[in-house]
Amino acid sequence: MATARLSSNKVVIVGAGPAGIRCAETLVAAGLKPILIDENRRDGGQIYRRQPEGFTRDYATLYGTEAGKARDLHQSFDRLRGEIDYRPDTLVWNLTPGQLCCVSQGKHTTADYDALILCTGATDRLMPIEGWQLAGTYSLGGAQIALNPRRFPSVTAWCSWAVGRCCIWWPANMLKPAPRWRQCSIPRR
Amino acid sequence: MKGRFVRLAEQGRPTVNLKVDGAAIEALQGDTLMVALLTQGSALRQSEFDSGRRAGFCLMGACQDCWVWTRSGERLRACSNEVREGLDIVTTQPEATWPLHG
User: Fold this and answer.
1) Which one of A56, A134, A183 has the shortest CB-CB distance to B6?
2) DSSP assignment string, A68-126
3) Is A42 in the same domain as A59?
4) I need a surface site. Which of A55, A68, A157, B66 has the fewest CB within 10 A?
5) Which domain holds residue A57?
């Protein structure tokens, strides 16, 4: 009976990255059908972002040392897809007791929940060194998105000032996908 | 600087035609608006708050730095919206002009 009661509850997961997908997997295994809301158009989150339709690079090219994990995550999502209520391209902008306020393709929507699980991941913590606000300076997370050419396909030839000073972080994160630099410029007004 | 971004791979995609501030540009299918605009120029738009130009910052839909607009007034984040054929983009904020402090 506990299971029957549980399965009538609405469980909403926010975020379709690794945490959200594994969370959905666990809930489905327990007999639930969670709603999975994600702002991106495709699953995978930031680090394991899937390339747009029509792009042709393989996992090793896209994800480098993370290729195995990325493939496993995407395959897990593909298996789950029919077992969950997946709502991509949906931004959650407010939370009230029992209800999420969302916007999808410019339209307001809501999602009711009995239980809510936030799998929203990490965000950059910024250190405002001089010049950080100039056009052409990017957060490290942003640089990583661009250099791991999924969302910003193949367009990767600047070197932001902030990144230039982060020589410890850089090699670890850019081990495989880093392209060669074509230009390296300190942004100017 | 002609373009802040330079294409290095995946260049065999079909082209998409759109307008930016009235000028026709070509992009590739699957490009984000940010890619389309920053392969053509060094910035996306004018800052609302100082005299600087803006070119995006977080690239993941969080920082609100890359807003551009359609001519009909719809706001789009350039980092997370893809190009579409015939899109008519403007890079100045249509709703309001802010006093500059910079």
Assistant:
1) A183
2) HHHHHHHHHHHHHGGGSEEE-S-EEEEEETTEEEEEETTEEEEEE-SEEEE--------
3) yes
4) A68
5) 2-118
